[in-house]
Amino acid sequence: MPDPGIEKAALVLIDVQRGFDDPVWGTRNNPACEANVATLLAHWRERGRPVVFVRHDSSEPGSPLAGGSAGNDFKDVITGEPELLVVKSTNSAFYGEPDLDRWLRQSGIDTLVIAGITTNHCCETTARMAGNLGYETFFALDATHTFERRAPSGRIIGADELSAVTAANLDGEFATVVSTEDLLR
Questions:
Q1: How far is CA 108 from CA 9, 32, 87, in A?
Q2: Residue 1 has what pLDDT?
Q3: What is the mean pLDDT of the chain?
């Protein structure tokens, strides 16, 4: 259960972009991700809490997330204007523009809730960095999704397994893994 500090937390919504609907990514998990993102966003806005949108502008040729492409646009669940829009081309929102860490510190924010796409890439990387930078970090696992991946051995690792590993990697070390329902209480 989140502590009272959650009342001052910034909601950081990472890469909730149309390009992740492209079949090139493979089989995904958690079909409830977008609904949970929308629920968290509405909850944060109702309470006047800060919201950060993060957008991945891929520099890879042909990427569904390339800047200026339809896939670069946010999905319909990302509505309204954020207090901050961070644009990045790497995994961590802390390496985007404008500087997320600087903005959070100048705004007096020391607690983050992370949600978005993909669980084990940009969301996990941002959560790890947030924890290392000293932020109290909550990772809304059911408001993220990912895709199956092929291991170097050739074995296909399912998206649910990757999400479970991300939760195990983060919880108690870099973040507290929570559900959308936990955050609404």
A1: 10, 32, 21
A2: 47
A3: 96
Residue pLDDT, tens place only, 122-163: 999 999 999 999 999 999 999 999 999 999 999 999 999 999
The 10 Å Cβ neighbour count of residue 95 is: 16
Give me the number of domains the chain comprises.
Answer: 1
Q: What are phi and psi of 114, to 5 degrees?
A: -110, 135
Amino acid identity, position 29: N
* CA gap 78, 20 in Å, rounded: 14
Give the predicted TM-score (pTM) of the model: 0.96
For 20-174, where are the E strands, in sequence order? 51-56, 84-88, 111-117, 136-145, 149-150, 156-157
The predicted pLDDT at position 5 comes to: 64
Which CATH number belongs to the domain containing residue 60 in this structure? Answer: 3.40.50.850
Point out which residues pair with 171 in neighbouring strands.
175
To which residue do tokens 């992740």 refer?
A: 20
CB atoms closer than 10 angstroms to residue 70: 11
Provide the token pair at 82: 């954020």
Alpha carbon distance 71, 65 (integer Å): 5
Domain limits at 132?
A: 4-184
